[in-house]
Write a structure and sequence with these properties.
Blueprint (H helix, E strand, L loop, with lengths): L2 E9 L5 E8 L4 E5 L6 H16 L7 H10 L7 H22 L3 H4 L8 E9 L2 H13 L4 E6 L27 E4 L1 H19 L4 E5 L6 H11 L6 E3 L9 H8 L4 E3 L10 H5 L5 E2 L8 H14 L3 E2 L9 H13 L6 E2 L5 H6 L5 E3 L2 E3 L12 H5 L10 E4 L4 E2 L2
Parallel strand pairs: 4-5, 4-12, 5-7, 6-15, 7-8, 8-9, 9-10, 10-11
Antiparallel strand pairs: 1-2, 2-3, 4-14, 13-14, 15-16
Helix pairs in contact: 1-3, 2-3, 3-10, 5-6, 6-7, 7-8
This protein binds D-gluconic acid (GCO) and magnesium ion.
D-gluconic acid (GCO) binds next to loops.
Length: 402
């Protein structure tokens, strides 16, 4: 199964996506996602200028060897650009291998470990009332797990808040939007949100929350403790995780489960957190953490320590990543939950896919391979548009983590 051509397709059906498409001598094609939100063209260039020339003529069946070749062979290791590019190749190769076998990819990964993949949706609102009303709409759609993000009284805007039901797109401007942040105001606002949500939704639905790397370990420990009565499924990204040892402090102060990892790129970013059991869920994702091959390695390490998976699944991960994540989720023993922000109809049209939602869960479908493709003619109708994620400042003007 020799690779004869490799194309990098950058398209913006409502938001930007970078997709790698491989062609083989036998006529099979495979796709991989290479989207890095706000830095898309750097990965496109890495692929076009530095990886595509290495792929032509290679045997597409050699998935592990190609991963090792691109990782060790670059000399420069890790980082989001490199690992997203490697991930795209890895996804496309698994897609090809499964198509060649005539099987949905999860069958090659050991087969299904469960019937379907529990997902969580995003309930966002400017006020507690709006957020709880949105959460109720998700519950009515059958969701068994819902993330709650609400505006903070006294702050004009904050992470995760949108006015459109079921849709939140953070990369919202041609130059970065500036948000203002106050941990003090935020910390006062979260427990009342959870209290109101439990009153309306009861106790049979899982409730999640994302802190987006904004607190100190002590602040995070206190918030985790404040939320314990409402039994959150997890608190996500409490502090910036470059310093993995900081999570020891959080652990000493709360029993609320902790999830981390959407911006991790390799197993080395998770190693200490997993080995010291400082987290409960690892959120590394197929596109930014080196593809299916590397994500399985991370999951295998996590399994040894009772840490479950909770893959990132925001809209900046294309339907190709979502499909790859679902095959992984269905087949990995220590699956926990999968994030699911629905893509727009415009995006879904460019990426026809076999996965489907029912009863609060997704299933990757039975199509051979990943079960997703890119309509290149339609993609060409949506040219790339620069779009940045926002930045965050404290009220005195200091830069803060967004
Ligand atoms: C999440 C994430 C996203 C990120 C986005 C950045 O938990 O879904 O925090 O919303 O902000 O993926 O590109
Ligand atoms: Mg997050």
């Amino acid at each position: 199964m020799t690779i004869t051509a490799a194309r990098v397709i950058t398209t913006c059906p409502g938001r930007n996506f970078v997709t790698l498409k491989l062609e083989t001598r036998g006529g099979l094609t495979g796709v991989g996602d290479a989207t890095l939100n706000g830095r898309e063209l750097s990965v496109a260039s890495y692929l076009v200028d530095h990886i595509v020339p290495l792929l032509i003529g290679r045997d597409a069946h050699r998935v592990e060897d190609t991963w090792q070749y691109l990782y060790k062979g670059a000399y420069w290791r890790r980082g989001p650009v490199t690992m997203s590019a490697i991930a795209a190749v890895d996804m496309a190769l698994w897609d090809l291998k499964a198509k060649a076998a005539g099987l949905p990819l999860y069958q090659l990964l050991g087969g299904a470990c469960r019937e379907n993949v529990m997902v969580y949706g995003h309930a966002n609102g400017v006020t507690v009332e709006e957020t709880v009303a949105e959460a109720k709409r998700y519950a009515d759609l059958g969701y068994r797990a819902i993330r709650l993000q609400s505006g903070v009284p006294g702050l004009a805007s904050t992470y995760g808040v949108s006015k459109t039901f079921g849709y939140y797109e953070p990369a919202d401007a041609a130059l970065p939007t500036e948000n203002l942040w106050s941990s003090e105001k935020y910390l006062r606002s979260v427990a009342p949100l959870f209290e109101a949500a439990r009153e309306t939704l009861g106790w049979d639905v899982h409730l999640l929350h994302d802190i987006h790397h904004r607190l100190t370990p002590m602040e995070a420990g206190r918030l985790g403790k404040d939320l314990e009565p409402y039994r959150p499924f997890w608190l996500e990204d409490p502090t910036p995780a470059e310093n993995q040892a900081a999570f020891r402090q959080i652990r000493q102060h709360t029993t609320t489960p902790i999830a981390v990892g959407e911006i991790f790129n390799t197993i080395w970013d998770c190693k200490q957190l997993i080995e010291e059991q400082l987290i409960d869920y690892i959120r590394a994702t197929v596109v930014h953490a080196g593809g299916i091959t590397h994500l399985r390695r991370i999951a295998a390490l996590a399994d040894l320590y009772g840490v479950r998976t909770g893959c990132h699944g925001a809209t900046d991960l294309s339907p190709v990543s979502m499909a790859a994540a679902l095959h992984f989720d269905l087949s990995v023993p220590n699956f926990g939950i999968q994030e699911y922000m629905r893509h727009t109809a415009e995006t879904d049209a460019v990426f026809p896919h076999a996965y489907s939602f029912a009863d609060g869960a997704l299933h990757p479908g039975e199509a051979p391979g990943l079960g997703v493709d890119i309509d290149e003619a339609l993609a060409a109708e949506h040219p790339y548009r620069p779009a940045y994620l926002p930045v965050n400042r404290l009220e005195d003007g200091s830069m803060h983590s967004w």
